[in-house]
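Customer escalation, tier 2.

The customer says the design service returned an amino acid string that "doesn't look like it belongs to this structure." They asked us to rerun it and document both sides in this ticket. The original structure tokens are below, unchanged.
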């Protein structure tokens, strides 16, 4: 009787353990799937790299501790993003924006997440505009945020609507510091969300869009990731010169800035068009499109 009871208790315990192990496995696979989606959305290739890291972990490192998988992923991802993609992307018609004395990424994030790829022709256009700008304002660089991913036309670079074909890039505005000197510093951590709002009496497209139901129009105010230099002020002269350079370049097709800035800077250009209420306000950055 005692043995039967003990056997029953053991079986029950084993069944409970098996169910628990199944639940944990399902949870881990769910977490893996969520990470796969997030990494794909943010970096394009990160999800695939995660799968490779996961299979490596399952085959060779299962018995090691729980940090093995993140570690393998980090090593794989760094190798792929830093060494492999920059070599492979040109075969697919895109290359990384090259940082130099005239142009640079807003932060390392835009480079390590592969969001800094453009077509080969567009790269020449960007460098040419940056070099001309730098010639007039030595020491001041064109600073870019999101461009495009390295592969596949039509692959979305969220949250942007149009950055899908290697022919789009966003630039920070040029700012002056407290001494009224041009600076390479930018107001926010992400590069987005610090608005040069309309003055009294200027056309206010922002209010129009918000009041007609386009609540996403000022969505970027939620993605500053911190305001680092709130004292910086928009340089009318330098931004006007920059947009005129963009307008004059044959490689540029379209420029998005908010209508009140277009008016304020007094630039005559067929390339500056209004992007519509369905996107986000463009008085925190310049969106530039290639032909
Ligand atoms: Zn853009």
């Amino acid at each position: 009787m005692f043995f039967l009871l003990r056997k029953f208790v053991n079986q029950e315990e084993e069944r409970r353990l098996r169910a628990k192990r199944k639940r944990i496995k399902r949870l881990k696979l769910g977490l893996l799937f969520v990470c796969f989606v997030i990494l794909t959305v943010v970096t394009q290739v990160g999800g695939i790299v995660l799968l490779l890291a996961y299979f490596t972990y399952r085959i060779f490192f299962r018995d090691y501790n729980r940090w093995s998988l993140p570690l393998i992923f980090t090593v794989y991802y760094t190798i792929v993003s830093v060494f492999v993609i920059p070599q492979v992307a040109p075969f697919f018609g895109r290359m990384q924006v090259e940082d130099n004395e005239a142009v640079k990424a807003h932060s390392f994030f835009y480079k390590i997440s592969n969001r800094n790829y453009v077509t080969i022709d567009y790269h020449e256009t960007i460098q040419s505009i940056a070099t001309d700008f730098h010639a007039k304002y030595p020491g001041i660089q064109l600073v870019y945020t999101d461009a495009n991913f390295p592969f596949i036309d039509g692959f979305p670079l969220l949250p942007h609507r149009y950055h899908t074909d290697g022919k789009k890039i966003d630039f920070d505005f040029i700012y002056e510091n407290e001494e009224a000197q041009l600076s390479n510093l930018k107001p926010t951590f992400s590069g987005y969300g610090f608005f040069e709002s309309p003055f009294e009496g200027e056309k206010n497209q922002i209010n129009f869009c918000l009041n007609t139901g386009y609540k996403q129009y000022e969505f970027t105010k939620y993605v500053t990731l911190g305001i680092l230099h709130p004292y910086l002020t928009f340089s009318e002269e330098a931004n006007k010169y920059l947009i005129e350079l963009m307008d004059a370049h044959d490689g540029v097709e379209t420029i998005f800035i908010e209508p009140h800035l277009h008016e304020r800077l007094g630039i005559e250009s067929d390339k500056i068009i209004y992007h519509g209420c369905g996107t986000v306000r463009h008085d925190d950055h310049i969106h530039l499109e290639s032909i």
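Tier 2 assessment: The sequence is consistent with the input. The CA atoms of residues 101 and 141 lie 7 Å apart. The chain has two domains: 2-87, 95-290. Sent an explanation to the customer and offered a walkthrough call.
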